[in-house]
Amino acid sequence: MHGPSWPLGGSTQASALAQDWVIFTCGALGLAALVWGLIIFAAIRFRQTKNNPEPRTQNANNTALEIAWTIAPLVIVIGLFAYTYHIEAGVEALAADAPVRVSVTGFRWGWTFAYGGGPAITGNSLHPPELVLPVGETAAVTVTSSDVIHSFWIPDMLFKRDAVPGRTSTFDLTPNRLGTYIGRCGEFCGLNHALMTFTVRVVSPEDYARWRTYEATQ
Ligand SMILES: [Cu+2]
After folding, report:
1. Domain boundaries along the sequence of the chain
2. Mean pLDDT (10-residue bins), the chain, 218 residues
3. How far is the CA of 149 from the centre of ligand 1 (A)?
4. What's the CA-to-centroid distance between 145 and ligand 1, angstroms?
5. Given this model, what pLDDT does residue 47 score?
6. Distance between CA atoms of 137 and 20, rounded to whole angstroms?
7. Cα 190 to averaged position of ligand 1 atoms, centre (Å)
8. Dihedral pair phi/psi, residue 69, rounded to 5°
9. In terms of CATH, what superfamily is 1-218?
10. Which helix H or strand E contains 2, and what residues bound it?
């Protein structure tokens, strides 16, 4: 069972999002090193000593520097925005012919996973349901709710989508690691919100086909 961890992600979409996260984090660390480095350098280099009793000359302005430190952050922000936009466009893209189709319905307090032309798995807070997906295959997921707003959330897949009554929201999920993942409701929806869990079991395509056949006979 994978709990919250270093965000490797469990799907191709999550890997793309994790990559974005790493770029933001490395960028922030690089910038922090520059700022802290300059502060520490200035504090040591220009500190008051016996040989340097007076403060150095203070410069009121430096136009070239001011232009540089206005443009540099703008360039960084625009770059991060463009890169994130590119990543999210890929994450939000829908495959035309996803081999797996699942309709997710949230309700107080549980979930139903209905497979296109196949079984519908329902569970509640006492018996959380399990979503079974084949590894390496794209699942087209539609999310809705039958009462109040819930949110379909698999923390390790780095993805959350609101389940809004009267609306259907669609996204693709392509699991790329075998295992069992914890799922939760990510939107406070009432008394048993915290118990509104589910699991996602990512299996081989062969095991998935066997599971579908087994469910069909139940
Ligand atoms: Cu909920």
Report:
1. 1-218
2. 61 91 93 96 87 75 93 95 96 93 96 91 93 96 97 93 96 95 95 95 96 86
3. 7
4. 9
5. 85
6. 23
7. 7
8. -80, 0
9. Cupredoxins -  blue copper proteins (2.60.40.420)
10. none
